[in-house]
Amino acid sequence: MNFEALPKIKHTNANNFFLLAGPCAIEGEDMALRIAEKVVSITDKLQIPYVFKGSFKKANRSRVDSFTGIGDEKALKILQKVSQTFDIPTVTDIHEISDAAMAAEYVDVLQIPAFLVRQTDLVVAAAKTGKVVNLKKGQFMSPEAMKHAVTKVHDSGNPYAWITDRGTMFGYQDMIVDFRGIPTMRQYAPTVLDVTHSLQQPNQSSGVTGGRPDMIETIARAGVVNNVDGLFIETHFDPKNAKSDGANMLHLDYLEKLLSNLVAIRKTVNGF
């Protein structure tokens, strides 16, 4: 795993999975710093390379009255402060071509949402910033199809592409992770398993997405056993009152035990 595009990332020689973790959305400065401080403490202890995750805005919402953000520049400046305070890289997702250059001024990794990963102009705009581009596999796409998304990044002159699997639609209200796709996608780029979004239960009649946080460790363990390069976990100190995706986020209090177990599994896998 080559991290040359992320000079702030730590513990790269630990032969561990890397971690993208944080709240679904940036709700304010205090909450972002509080979550980052806790995750940095845990990942330093366990020697896990860490990238702080937070969406500066939420564009894909079920209802028009759903939370979308606190203001683009305000949220991006909070991400920048997290990076400066803890000397860690950060990732956020973008939704429009104009977002790419704007967000690239503040964060280290630009994430393309799953519903938008086939949007060539958006992927190319992200790639041309020179930042790492994290391509989320569409819920409707095969693992093999992600080769073309990676090629778009590389053909734009950017060698830094990741793939993130966040599950595949199974019926209308469930997601399934097909672990056969991990070795396939790793042929194209470093591959991350988005544990928490893989446990979403979308299309609820209420217009609020559900989830199965009780299955987080089950999915994460299977990812580590199957040699994912990284894990993506949304976490919050108060998921029930989080403004976005609270139903499938991991409570921050449970993160250390989960990661400790996963690091132990990784050490076993490394010995095979």
TrEMBL record:
Whose protein is this, by species?
Answer: Paucihalobacter ruber
Output the Pfam families linked to this UniProt entry. DAHP_synth_1
EC assignment: 2.5.1.55
Q: Does the keyword Transferase apply?
A: yes
Q: Where in the cell is it found?
A: Cytoplasm
Pathway(s) of this molecule: Carbohydrate biosynthesis; 3-deoxy-D-manno-octulosonate biosynthesis; 3-deoxy-D-manno-octulosonate from D-ribulose 5-phosphate: step 2/3; Bacterial outer membrane biogenesis; lipopolysaccharide biosynthesis
Name the SUPFAM superfamilies for this protein. Answer: Aldolase
GO CC entries: cytoplasm
**Transferase as a keyword?**
yes
Outline the extent of the DAHP synthetase I/KDSA domain: 8-264
Q: Name one GO molecular function term.
A: 3-deoxy-8-phosphooctulonate synthase activity
Name-wise, this protein is 3-deoxy-8-phosphooctulonate synthase
The record, for InterPro entries, names:
Aldolase_TIM, DAHP1/KDSA, KDO8P_synthase
The principal location of this protein is: cytoplasm
Q: Which GO terms describe its biological process?
A: lipopolysaccharide biosynthetic process
| Broad enzyme group | transferase
Q: Which family does it belong to?
A: Belongs to the KdsA family.
- Keyword field: Cytoplasm, Transferase
Q: What is catalysed by this protein? A: D-arabinose 5-phosphate + phosphoenolpyruvate + H2O = 3-deoxy-alpha-D-manno-2-octulosonate-8-phosphate + phosphate
